[in-house]
Design brief:
The chain has 637 residues and is mostly beta strands. The chain has three domains: 213 residues, Beta Barrel (YmcC-like fold), CATH 2.40.360; 179 residues, no CATH class; 171 residues, Glycosyl hydrolase domain, family 43 (Tachylectin-2, Chain A). Helices cover 1% and strands 53% of the residues. The strands form seven sheets. It has an 18-stranded mixed beta sheet that branches. Strands 35, 36, 37, 38 and 39 form a five-stranded antiparallel beta sheet that branches. Strands 15-16-17-18 form a four-stranded antiparallel beta sheet, with no helix packed on it. The two termini are 20 Å apart.
């Protein structure tokens, strides 16, 4: 976070911050170790900022700070700390700091306030030699700010004094993780701004900063009063990458762009698909632009770097249907899509080569809404097959070499309803979950069935997962080393209400033997996210090494009624524990005006997870894209 001290009249004086919490140890007056101030090119901190102005208006934004390298400043070798959005206006600022065995020193910045640098340059923010609180960090008398604030053609002058003390050590739990032995530093700023036309304005400010060993600044609060005007700022660490240590949720960025012209039809391009081979990700979507319709893929590195786009088809398709599916065996990815050729599959090597030219293997002429998972040398493709009397969920096996097995029945579905199945591999068998019921009645249920790797259906009578009142729909499934977790959108708490009412996310664990663990189907299930809005049916679930991640789309347009908008996520332990509290992890940030965020998809590499979603712009002249954000498990330091 930018080291700032706020003063009146919109002028930034400089400083550092921190925030809140209760101390338990006596004050440590002499300073803290230099390991609390890591400096290394590429280090990345991301903060959630809440700023309360003197008129009580609140602004919330994300500020990302990266060390981009070094620069010679005032004859000293300085580290460049680049902040993307330090004041919430989207204007980036570079600040310069030097660090040696004696101190961590501020050397100025590249903002427009040149007078500010002349006043506070060479200010120690921390001294490592045991003298931190012995003398003021800054003490300037009658300093010319070279700025005319009262309109008389003369610049104003300021007295300013900054002192610091280490108040103690404590544990903080933030979006980026849990941090023990964090040093709580307090800075007191007192000053007087003297107006050349007469009169003066008192300035007082209390700044707290919490720093974690080896991580740096994790929280700051600033309360500034200038005259009778008081403002407060709070910045909490939401993500960090320092010296190979990563945790939290990083800011979203564009992945695939220009996919379709802006309109309200989210099926153009529809739901994206995402898989991981253990090293990098493959994102699959489609482009429906002026040059034609085609399937496209994009490889993304574990750190989120875009590496390679791949054309799965030519740009000459007359029709295609969103919601492809993709899974990996570690060496190849199997991509399953529906278009004018029917339901078909193509293999892509992990190196980026297209192994099967379009359309690849034809799977089912009437198949729609596929799901795919890999296990024990086979992919299981499950799909919806529409029938005029009774629709079905069907499946077929595809080998890693692309050999397609015989099609078989898995279970019945909803007649005349676009039911999307979910499939995962539990280490021994596949398990398929889907929605069943009647298309005309609000009594849909979630059922499941296991299929072995030879294609034998192990549950001819489907397993009842949830038969709670009203609607249960849009199941998702993932497996840990012991059990699997099935999640779904649930309307049991809103019986009889229209779909403008909120919805909930529920889930249950199921064993490899098909035993549902969390209560009877009619009333059981784990409440995973309650009171989220109608887009909650757009969800995704993945197991990420030590627990599950569940993501959903919440709200419609920015500032729509019903709570926050955007893509949110929660972590679910293998014991069913859920974190964080409502509203969850803000993965996407709020959408821009006239934009809806739909169809999140998740995949994991090692302990990291990539979340992607459709950025469905409806603004005239704009275009749609797929955006994504990296999520790492919260740190425990």
């Amino acid at each position: 976070m930018r080291q700032q001290i706020m003063v009146l009249l919109g002028v930034l004086l400089a400083g550092c911050g921190g925030g809140g919490g209760s101390g338990s140890t006596p004050p440590q007056m002499t300073g803290i170790p230099e390991t609390y101030y890591p400096v290394l090119t590429g280090t990345d901190w991301v903060y959630d900022v809440n700023a309360v102005a003197p008129d009580s208006s609140v602004s919330a934004y994300i500020n990302e700070m990266q060390i981009t390298g070094t620069k010679l400043v005032a004859g000293a070798d300085a580290w460049v700390f680049r902040e993307s959005n330090p004041s919430g206006d989207g204007v980036a600022v570079d600040s310069y700091y030097a660090k040696d065995a004696r101190a961590f020193v501020y050397l100025g910045d590249n903002s427009s306030a040149d007078w500010l640098n002349s006043i506070i340059r060479q200010m120690d923010f921390m001294r490592f030699d045991g003298t931190f609180s012995q003398t003021p960090l800054l003490d300037r008398k009658n300093a010319d700010i070279a700025t005319d604030l009262d309109g008389d053609g003369k610049s104003e002058r300021i007295d300013i004094k900054v002192t610091g003390v280490v108040e103690g050590y404590e544990t903080l739990v933030l979006g980026a993780g849990s941090f023990s032995n964090t040093a709580r530093i307090r800075y007191d700023i007192a000053g007087t701004l003297t107006l050349s036309a007469g009169g003066s304005v008192p300035i007082t400010e209390t700044v707290h900063e919490w720093r974690a060993n080896g991580i740096g600044a994790i929280r700051q609060t600033v309360q500034a009063t200038v005259g009778t005007q008081t403002s407060t700022d709070t910045s909490d660490l939401r993500a960090v990458s320092v010296n190979g240590v990563k945790g939290g949720v990083f800011p979203a960025h564009d992945l695939l762009t220009g996919l379709a012209s802006a309109d309200s039809d989210a099926t153009r391009p529809g739901r994206p698909a995402l898989s991981s081979d253990g090293t990098r990700y493959l994102l699959v979507s489609n482009s429906q632009g002026a040059s034609g319709r085609q399937w496209i893929g994009q490889f993304i590195a574990a750190d989120g770097t875009l590496q390679q786009n791949i054309a799965l088809s030519g740009a000459s398709l007359s029709s295609l249907e969103g919601a492809p599916a993709v899974a990996s065996d570690g060496n190849t990815h199997l991509v399953v899509m529906r278009d004018e050729a029917g339901l078909h599959a193509q293999r892509v090597s992990s190196a980026g080569g297209l192994l099967d030219t379009y359309p690849g293997a034809i799977l089912a002429a009437n198949g729609r809404f596929p799901a795919v998972a890999y296990g024990n040398g086979q992919y299981l493709v499950a799909y919806y097959n529409y029938g005029p009397v009774q629709s079905t969920i069907r499946g077929l096996l595809v080998s890693s070499s692309g050999v397609v097995g015989a099609d078989f029945l898995i279970g019945t579905a909803i007649s005349g309803y676009a039911d999307i199945p979910a499939v995962a591999f539990d280490g021994r068998d596949f398990i398929v979950a889907w929605e069943t019921g009647s298309s005309g009645l609000p009594d849909h249920d979630i059922v499941a069935a296991r299929v072995n790797t030879a294609g034998a259906l192990l549950d001819p009578v489907p397993i009842s997962v949830s038969t709670a009142p009203d609607m249960q729909f849009a199941p998702r499934i993932a497996c840990d080393p012991v059990n699997c977790l099935i999640t779904w959108t649930d309307r049991r708490n809103y019986v009889g209400l229209n779909y403008a009412a909120p919805g909930d996310m529920y889930g249950t664990f199921i064993t490899r033997e098909g035993v549902v663990l969390n209560g009877p189907p009619a009333s059981g299930g784990l409440p995973l996210a309650l009171g989220i809005t109608t887009n909650s049916g757009d969800s995704s679930l993945v197991y990420a090494a030590s627990g599950y991640v569940l993501a959903w789309s919440q709200g419609a347009y920015v500032n729509s009624p019903g709570g926050p908008t955007g893509v949110y996520a929660r972590r679910i332990g293998t014991d069913g524990s859920v974190s964080p509290a409502a509203p969850g992890l803000a993965v996407s940030g709020a959408p821009q005006a006239s934009t809806r965020l739909y169809y999140p998809a998740l995949a994991s590499i090692s302990t990291g997870t990539l979340a992607v979603w459709l950025n469905n712009s409806e603004a005239m002249g704009d275009s749609k894209s797929i955006r994504g954000a990296l999520m790492w498990p919260p740190l425990s330091r």
